[in-house]
Design goal:
This protein is mostly helical. It is built from 4 helices and no strands.
Length: 78
């Protein structure tokens, strides 16, 4: 486990305190780890949704969906 001395600004410290309280974490170190984990999930490499994977498989097989208009496409994706 790596250890670091980190200086937070007043706003960042408040945010960590809010995260700590909201999620019932014991200390700010856990809050920092929680925020980092959420960042990784949401921004770095999110997993593809299962329905999107099905569409990708269809495309790779050559099964395409044809649309006659933009409105038809929008109705299909809504």
């Amino acid at each position: 486990m790596a250890q670091a001395i980190v200086n937070f600004g007043e706003r960042q410290d408040r945010i960590l305190t809010i995260v700590k309280g909201k999620y019932g974490l014991r200390n700010k170190s856990q809050a920092v780890n929680f925020v980092i984990d959420k960042f990784e999930e949401e921004l770095l490499e999110p997993e593809l949704r299962p329905e999107y994977l099905k569409k990708l498989k269809k495309i790779r097989k050559g099964n395409y969906t044809r649309f006659n208009s933009i409105d038809e496409l929008r109705r299909a994706t809504s």
